[in-house]
Specification:
Number of strands: 23
Radius of gyration: 31 Å
Shape: elongated
CATH class of the largest domain: Mainly Beta
CATH architecture of the largest domain: 6 Propeller
Low-confidence stretches: 225-229
Oligomer: single chain
Number of helices: 10
Helix content: 25-40%
Structural class: alpha+beta
Amino acid sequence: MLSLLVVLGALTALLAGIAGAWSPCGFSMVDTIGTALGDARRTVMILATATFTVGALAGGAITFGGLSLLGELLGHGAEGLRDALAGALALAAAFADWRGWKIAPQIRRQVPERWRWSMPLPLACGLYGLLLGLGFTTFVLSFAVWALAGISFAADSAIFGVAVGVAFGIGRALPVLWIAPRLGSERGDRALERLALEPRLWLGLRRLDAIGLGACAVVLAGSSALAAAPNFATDPSTYGGSLAWQKIGGDGYLFARSRTVKLPGRLPALGGGKLAYVSHGQIVISAGLSSSSPVTIARPANATIDALALSARWLVVRDHTTTGLANLFAVSLRHPARRRYLAGSTTPGAIGRPTIDGATVAWAYSDAQHSGIYAENLRTGVGSVLRLATKNVQYSNPALDEGRLLYVQTDRCAQQLLLGLPSDSAAGHDRVLLSLPSTVLRDPGYQSGYIQNYNSASLCSKRKTGAGGTTTLGSTALTPANAYVSESPVGDVDRTTIVTIALG
């Protein structure tokens, strides 16, 4: 999305810069450089043209790049809202430019004429170019300039801001570079006359700007809509229309009320109207980002927390110690000192990420003998087995919500995202939401070049023998309307994405 926005923004800025040639300053620059103040030396004109161009490029980069940097420094919060507002601004400016409305607000200021007489021409033209490139220090000739400033701030990307600024500077310099060296010749005088007598060219450029702004608005709308479908992220967690996730290699994020907020910690979990995350070795639980009195729970000694699940009254924690022992336990939010042990293992990865719905917590556990999804009611202490396989099948990544179970089933043929009831007897009626080829290598059952002796691999209806699929299904989350699952390219977990599936 950003790369497309950069291209569209730069093209729009280029046209907006060219449209600036119809300003009093634009005509003044052509005359100043073209006549070289009566100096017949062509080298003076060439040098003045070069410094003017450099100044225009620098001014554009300073203005639009600076706005992008300011947006980035103010933080990454409310990206969805900022994209939506920038898109609305782009549409409004596009409409105004298409209709050719009078520019408002207008900056009625021209470049200082005295510089022409008090400075060497190359220096004066360099400063003139800087002022014109800055965009808002002289007359503004299109609404696109104002809109691109707003988009630069909302994009909070230095790449976008610099690209737009440089393109704007090029646009401001191009008419001057084209006409000024030819001024005094029939061709140059005719070009300047056409520039002065053909305002329709200016209006045409504004309409092209309007098209570019409309395209930018479409991209920004797409960026806002994708705010809740993050890339390079994993471990989704949901509650009441909000979505939290863990950014790969970074902190957690929360999407709620149409805005995305970077959290001051990792491993976010939502549940029971609360938010939990790990920060500075402690588990922070609050009623939201605005909560003035969050509850903090110290992490277990000599252990690292690597997963959380949350409900209105319970926090479930998975950690691992320096000796390789993994533990899963529950903490009562009413009495944080009381902890209930749920599972443990010395095998890395044997205990899956927990999920909780009310007082029922579930998790996957796999070892060399079997794989299953287990549950326990934290009020009664009664445990149950939701899914169990003794060979050739792995169950993983469960998510509970309102009496439904979402999980991943993997065998040699496929990996499937399934939705059903928690009861093991209902497993045969589970709904397949997503099916991908298994990443397991399938042996053909015989060695090439030898008699087959009627041996072959087990049948799989949708995959051949050999290397498996290229995508692995991972952690999940569930709401009444949507299922979420993370997908990782095999061997490249840094490019994990979270996919949303509408349940319909």
